[in-house]
Amino acid sequence: MSKQIITRFAPSPTGFLHIGNARTALFNWALAKSLGGQMLLRIEDTDKERSTEPAIRAIIDGLDWMGLDYDGEPIMQSENIGRHKEVAQQLLDAGHAYKCYCTADELNEMREKARAEGRNAFYDRRWRNKTDADAPAGQPYVVRIKAPLEGEIVIDDKVQGKVTFKAENLDDFIILRSDGSPIYQLAVVVDDHDMGVTHILRGDDHLTNAARQTVIYNAMGWDVPVMAHTPLIHGPDGAKLSKRHGALGVGEYRKMGYLPETIRNYFARLGWSHGDEEIFSSEQFIEWFSFEGLNKAGSRMDFAKLENLNAHYIKEADDKRLFDLMVGLTDELSFEVQKAGLLAHEETVLRALPLLKPRAKTILDLITGAEFIFAQRPLQFEEKALNALDDDSVEMLRALQPELAAIENWDHDTINDVMRGFADAKELKFGKVAQPLRAALTAKAASPGCFDVLELFGKDESLSRLKETTGV
């Protein structure tokens, strides 16, 4: 019987869930789902000075919003410190670790000497073979692992291939601080082992950590999980991703009006591919996901692609769901006027959404696009809309009003016939009638077509707006 696949997502709660971490979570989620396994969530909160409750909440909320479900309850690493210390003692007892009593001054002197001689500024292992009998009375100590002195540490990485670290380039790194608290390398190995993690998929900035952690696995006689290290995400210019490139928290993308399915799809393509497929469902992603699809080369953020993909998913989305997202976003951003307007005109906005969706790239675009429906009176005109309402156009609209008022069956075809007949009688191109009419009704330069707007508003509201604009 094969062992159940267990992956884990293990962020440090020192800030928001940024996109690099979000992609790591996405890949682990897909790997677990594709192999019928589990993805566990471990919050690495041992750095109490930097770990915060809001950051923990942001991570969990970000995963929830992205639709990345994990198995069981979140595991808090800080609750396992006793276990970490226990393993450190086991390593000491087995002779795989030792106590180091070097002072800060001694360590500085050691580093300076190594640099002067052109060597790696490693600890010189002076306490490696000493015993408790050599210990200075009452002096604090750290616990160091006994790294191999010769040979190689080989990582059979599922993305990078075979990665070899020479023993001479590994030092006897600390696993327990002088205050008894565990170092990251030890805590991660102990937690992954105790959680039954079989596969570790993370960014390639952890590749060197993989070598150090393998030293601990080997010392404990534990199986080393399957490892895969993916290249980091870069900005459009190829430089390391930063805030100026869009290295924001997942919550910020929500506030900018992106849909979770867009983020799942787009982040999946940042470092993974399945043929030439660009747009795919989460179900397809899970079905197709494999280590073979992960790219060795770094990926670049492309906001134009992200927006176009979001536009696609907005067109595909259910109108009621989009309306609820619009209301939710106005609430989150404290857009009180827009929220009140949406709620007061829900039926009209829902009818307008099929007209607004083709023009929108984000939920914010939908909110802005719907503002003409609930705009407060008198209307506040955009400059381009005012430009369409010169004296001749206003006079023309005054003449059009009786024609519209006489319509009994207020529907698209009847309105079309009346307006085109009016344009012909006035010897005007139809656009010379439609464009000023749309501007007068919406106070905007960009909106759905005039027939659609007239139908949305209905006869009474349409004539009321026209009268207000033309002064009749």
Description:
A motif ('HIGH' region) lies at residues 11-21. It is a single chain. With 472 residues, the chain is mainly α. It contains 19 helices and 12 strands. The protein has helices spanning 19-34, 53-66, 81-93, 104-116, 184-194, 207-220, 250-255, 260-269, 282-288, 303-316, 319-332, 336-344, 346-356, 363-374, 383-387, 391-405, 412-425, 430-442, 450-470; strands at 6-9, 38-43, 75-76, 97-100, 142-145, 152-157, 161-166, 174-176, 199-203, 226-230, 233-234, 299-300. The longest helix has 21 residues, at 450-470. The chain is elongated. It starts with 5 loop residues before the first strand and ends with a helix. The mean pLDDT is 93.
Give the distance, in angstroms, between the N- and C-terminal Cα atoms. Answer: 84 Å
The strand order across the widest sheet is 1-2-3
- The global form is elongated
Number of alpha- plus pi-helical segments: 19
Mean pLDDT: 93
Radius of gyration: 32 Å
**Which class best fits the helix and strand makeup?**
mainly alpha
CATH class of the domain at 80-187: Alpha Beta
Please indicate the percent range of residues in DSSP E strands (runs of 2 or more).
5-15%
* CATH topology grouping of the domain at 80-187: Glutamyl-tRNA Synthetase, domain 3
Biggest beta sheet summary? 3 strands, parallel
